[in-house]
Amino acid sequence: MTSTETATLPGTPASAGAAVGPVVRVPEPLGEPPAGPVVPEDGREVEAARIAPAGAAVSSRMMDTAGTPGLAKEVSDVLYATAMMAEDPTLVEAAEGLVRDQGTPAARAVFEAAARFVAALQAAGGYMAERAGDVKDVRDRVVAELLGVPAPGVPVLEGPSVLVAKDLAPADTATLDPATALALVTEEGGPTSHTAILARSLGIPAVVGCRGAAGLVEGTLVRVDGTAGEVVEVPAGTAVGADLAAAGPTSVSGPVTTTDGHRIAVVANIADAKDASRAAEVGAEGVGLLRTELTFLSASSEPSADEQRAGYAATMAPLAGTPITLRTLDAGADKPVPFLDMAPEVNPALGVRGQRLFDDGAERADVLDRQLVAAVGGAADAGVTLKVMAPMISTADEAARFVARARKAGVEQVGVMIEVPAAVLNAPELLAEVDFVSVGTNDLTQYVFAADRQSGPLAGFNDPWQPAVLRLLDQLCRAAEVTGTPVGVCGEAAADPALAVVLVGLGVTSLSAAASALPAVAARVSSVDLATAQRAARAAVASRDVASARAAVRDVLG
Predict the structure, then answer these.
(1) Which of 66, 290, 396, 429 is found 20 to 30 A from 158 (Cα to Cα)?
(2) Which is nearest to 191 in space by CA: 326, 344, 394, 13?
(3) At what angle do helices 73-86 and 126-147 cross, to 10 degrees?
(4) Catalytic, out of 194, 210, 262, 477
(5) 262 catalytic, yes or no?
């Protein structure tokens, strides 16, 4: 920073790295279309008939983009899912009904029909609430099509730029080119939103929840630091482009230890073979979280044991010879699996989900047993050391039941996820039942604060630097020290290099994050001794709030 730079705009780190570029503001959504004039009865059929073709046109364009060669699978999946919403028969029929019954103009009818879906999704919470943003995006695109105006979204970038928006739809984020979209800054959103996750996948530095971004003027030159969560105006003439010095290392070099030899496993979060290949390329020591939902979420019937085994083997194969921790199916009303026929729930985040769906005596318990057998077979085929853990465990009895079933299926190392505050309070008994635990900081944080992690207005609560969360982790690690149980972290907290040092100081033994985050995490952990990490941890735990926790750790680490 130079003395001529202006004040720093703080936000929430969402995707690591830094870049300098001119601000390009993303236009605000269209807003509400006119409510009138009322369409005459003799013109209502013609007006209603405009809606389906408009939705089809929007869907077709998004499908074309989703099919772009070389587009990452997670990006294509987001676009395909959003494109299907544009032609959703329920939405189209509801809008057509408003035109026919009330004479509502087509654009207004789409807006009002979509509002009902948005309200229902937001009330459901969790994953379903996250989809509300996608519905709004589709709504605005169809409305623009009907009004004959340009669709909302990211403007065409004429050169390397920093995009600044109130928020970005996942479909917009998914198609960004890192060569021109140097960095993202949003006023809303949190580090676990779809936009943040896609930014990390694309390797684009991002800061979210940056309230001061509303005052950034188009064309202003700024430096965005997605690692620190800061946006700073810089003088004219500052070189535009990625800040390579801030980008840091690109690979993990061998076993990771602190400077005094304290060993920490640095492993990856993956969902498919492409993720596994990326993890291998950067030097990950294995996998701390293999999400298995992709095998099930789009399946109309349960995949056979052979299909599951082959899928797991293909996903694990790029990391042959390493340990891989697989999380069993984490489904629920907020992440519905068609063949499980789950009933809707008023609050799915607090409902029958994760291991609760498959516990002993549950209607669907045998689904878990078949998954465990397939996982053991797939790991053998891929030549990896398998560890298995269950999501949404709260008590020692739940943990013991899962361990017994996993061992019966042939799993040698069995653990559970720590996502529920009760699991920490029950740690002395729970830890005695398992071989290891892994903390999902994203869910743990939202449950601690009763704050939906997809809610923009509540993003400040859903920050893993929250002292309340760190105090829970401290309590867990102290209990684990007594039982000798390894504690890993596989939430977004493990992707923050400074926070990773804090976790090591608390007693965490493995850090698992997206492959792109691992080199910086490994380098930061390797730069300190254990005593320094412990001082940083004590400083963070003793802090009053997020800002003071970050500042206290900066003071310790320098």
Answers:
(1) 66
(2) 13
(3) 60
(4) 194
(5) no
